[in-house]
Amino acid sequence: MKLMGYTPDCSTCNYLFLTLSKIGQFEEAVEVLKGMGKAGCIPDCSTCNYLFLTLSKIGQFEEAVEVLKGMGKAGCIPDCDNYGGLIAELSEARKVDAR
């Protein structure tokens, strides 16, 4: 994008991160996150949510919990949807019994 003279904003970075994550390009998705700061874009609540859900879906639960814990630093307060998503993924992976 930068080679074409376009400077991405947070929404563009979030969309790119989400799309890369959905198609299993996790290393590239992480590079997008790392590049957000270089582009002058601070990860927001959407970024935290996308990262949290991506990590949960690929079974990186410890990392997902760390993102959840760190969401406050990004100015985001985890809500019942965040915790519910984690419980659902843990239950699906048979890491907890959600009954």
TrEMBL record:
- Give the InterPro entries listed for this entry: PPR-containing_protein, PPR_rpt, TPR-like_helical_dom_sf
Keywords noted in UniProt: Repeat
Where on the tree of life does the source sit, at the highest rank? Eukaryota
| PROSITE patterns assigned to the protein according to its UniProt record, in alphabetical order | PPR
PPR repeat intervals: 9-43, 44-78
Identify its protein family. Belongs to the PPR family. P subfamily.
> Mind telling me what this protein is named?
Uncharacterized protein
Please tell me the species this chain comes from: Salvia splendens (Scarlet sage)
